[in-house]
Amino acid sequence: MSTLQVVEVLLLAGCLLLALWLVVLWLRRRALAAHGPMCPCAVRLPGSSRWRLGLLRMGVRDLDWFSVAGLTTSPSMSWAREGMEISTPAPEPVSLPGLDSAVAVTLTRGREHLADLAVEPKIYPAVRSWLESAPPGHNVNVT
Q1: What domain count does the chain have?
Q2: How far is Cα 78 from Cα 131, in angstroms, rounded to an integer?
Q3: 11 in a structural domain
Q4: Could you tell me if residue 29 is inside a domain?
């Protein structure tokens, strides 16, 4: 086999691996979205200055965060809806690749700082509405 043929075979294998990875990510995204609304976001944990790009899913009882390039269908981070509060957006937009003029909000539970989220401005009202609405079966016997 000549050097040119080896290079062609390696390039073809690389292209096939890339295509396979993209198909797997697409299938993962569809599987994640089957369990609740999803949106792109970034998260910053307390004490860190680094934003991590990912997908935010609003489930029945939890707010789940998934890494954008991960292969698992289990959330990397999850916050229970019960008792969680969300701040108003910061006055200055956050500049992150993959998010257009994102707004930063803080998730807290009591005095505990859970995380900072950066979401697109049109997504913020949806997350806030999800958080403020009662989960199914919660307080059903209120009179």
Answers
A1: 1
A2: 14
A3: no
A4: no
